[in-house]
Specification:
about 140 residues, alpha/beta, four-stranded parallel β-sheet, 4 helices
Length: about 140
């Protein structure tokens, strides 16, 4: 059995995997370190991460400029203990035995950095609470 099997695993899913799920992934990785396995994906991934999201995250010292949106796969869901959806509706496959959370957050797509900051801060608060629950 590998070391990663013992770690709680979280998958963040949104439509484009260019904003909310990228911020959540970055915060969980930054705050929990190697105590949690983190993935993110989108049901219809964008070509690039939202530049306003990259800027908003850099303001809090987290660089996500190298991240690339990834497509949601059944395998990613099956490999995760907790699946957190952010506005992807019914596109996320549901498997028994997984914990599903749906975080209702505004979509930062097409928004400037001023609109992204409150979304970023809300995600950070939710991530800190999630770490207390799972790590």
């Amino acid at each position: 059995m590998s070391d990663t099997a013992a770690l709680p695993s979280v998958l963040f899913v949104c439509v484009h995997n260019a904003g909310r799920s990228q911020m959540a992934t970055a915060f969980l990785t930054h705050l929990a370190g190697d105590r949690v396995e983190v993935r993110s994906a989108g049901s219809a991934p964008a070509d690039t991460v939202n530049p306003a999201v990259v800027q908003a995250m850099s303001e809090v010292g987290i660089d996500i400029s190298a991240e690339v949106p990834k497509v949601l796969t059944t395998e990613a869901v099956q490999a995760s203990d907790v699946v957190i959806t952010m506005g992807c509706g019914d596109t996320c496959p549901v498997f028994p035995g997984k914990r599903y959370l749906d975080w209702q957050l505004p979509d930062p797509a097409g928004q400037g950095v001023d609109a992204v900051r409150p979304i970023r801060d809300e995600i950070e608060q939710r991530i800190r609470q999630l770490i207390e629950e799972i790590a």
